[in-house]
Amino acid sequence: MKTIDFNYTLPQELIAQRPLLQRDASRLLVMGREDGRIEHKQFSDILDYFNPGDILVVNNSRVIPARLYGRKPTGGKVEILLLEQLDETRWKALVGGKKMGEGTAVSLDGDDGLTGTVTAVLDGPQREITFNQPVDGYLYEHGHTPLPPYIHETLEDPERYQTIYSRPEGSAAAPTAGLHFTGDLLFALREKGVIFETVTLHVGLDTFKPVDTEFVRDHAIHTEWATISPTAAKRINEAKLAGGRIFAVGTTTTRVLETGALRSAGLTGDFYNISARDAAGETSKMCPWKPVTAFEGPTDLFIYPGYKFRAVTGMITNFHLPQSSLLMLVSAFAGQENMMRAYETAVAERYRFYSFGDAMFIL
Description:
Blueprint: E1 27-31, E2 38-42, E3 55-59, E4 62-63, E5 67-71, E6 77-85, E7 90-96, E8 105-108, E9 115-121, E10 126-131, H1 136-142, E11 169-171, H2 183-191, E12 195-201, E13 224-228, H3 230-241, E14 246-249, H4 251-264, H5 271-279, E15 295-299, E16 314-318, H6 325-334, H7 336-348, E17 359-362
Parallel strand pairs: 1-17, 3-12, 3-14, 4-11, 14-16
Antiparallel strand pairs: 1-2, 5-6, 5-8, 6-7, 7-10, 8-9, 9-10, 12-13, 13-15, 16-17
C-alpha cells in the first residue's frame, strides 16, 4: 500500500483558521462503516446517535505552552518545541535553527535566566535539551501555544486550543476531536445514560511529521506516552460486557484503547507482524472484542488499513491532512474507499478542515 493512495486535493480556503464561537456548532459528517452512507448534521446532533449504556472515551491530555524562543551566543535565532520531558531538566524537543549540534547553548527569551544546552543529537531536527533549571514556571510566563503550521492567525484565547476536560499536562498539540464538546453537551449525554471515561495520550512528534515513505509500512512512528488507569479499564470493559458500544473521541484515544486491547490479547510485537497475522483469510475490519488492560507507558502503535480493531466500535474525529498517519488510521477503521469518498464529499460540501474545523462521526 502506497502513501500516495491517501492523497486528496484540499482548497486552502477550507483550512479553518479560527475556532467557531460555539464549540458544538461545527458541522458533523456522519458515516456508516459498513455501507458508507453519509449524513450531514451539526455536532450537537451527536446526542441522537448514542444509546443508554454506551461509553464515550476521551483523551484528557492538556497542551502545554511548549514553543520557546531564544538565541545562541552568536546571536542566531532558535526555536524550541518541547515534546517529552525526560527528567526534571531534560527534554526531547524539535529545534529550529542552524548548527544546533551537541554542546550548543541557547539563552531563552525572558528575564528568568533560563538557558538550555543541546546534550544529544537525535533523529532529524530532534534534540535532547538540558536546561539550567526546571522550565515549568517559565512556560506560563514566556512559552507559546504550539499551533499547527497550517494555522496562520493568532489565537486570542489559548483555552480554545484545549478541550474542556483537559487535565494532565504534557501534549505538544491538542487532541482536536474533543474541541467540539461543551459542558452542556456532556451533561446531556450523561442524562441519556452515556458513560464518560478518560484516558491519556500526550501528543508528540508524529502530529507534526508527515508520512514521507513511498510505502505506508515503511513509515516509522514515534512513541508517545499513554495511560489507561485500572478504574478506567474496568469501567470500559464493564460497559462493553453490559452491551454498550465503545466510542473513541479522536485518533489518540483510539490508539490508547487499541494498545490496551493488544496488551490484553498478549500481542506486543510491532504492528506489521500483528497486521500480517490478522489479515490471513479475513476481510472484516474487526476482530472479536478484547477487553482493554490498564497500562502506563509508551505506545508506538501504527494503525493503517489491514489492522483489525479489537476495542473501538465508533469514532469521532476531525478531518486530517493528506498522506498523514491519522488519515491512514481512520481509513483502517472505516475502509479506505469509504473514507476517501467521505473526504471528497466534505470538500464538495465546503466543510472546514483540520484542527479548528468540522468533525466526522464514524458508526
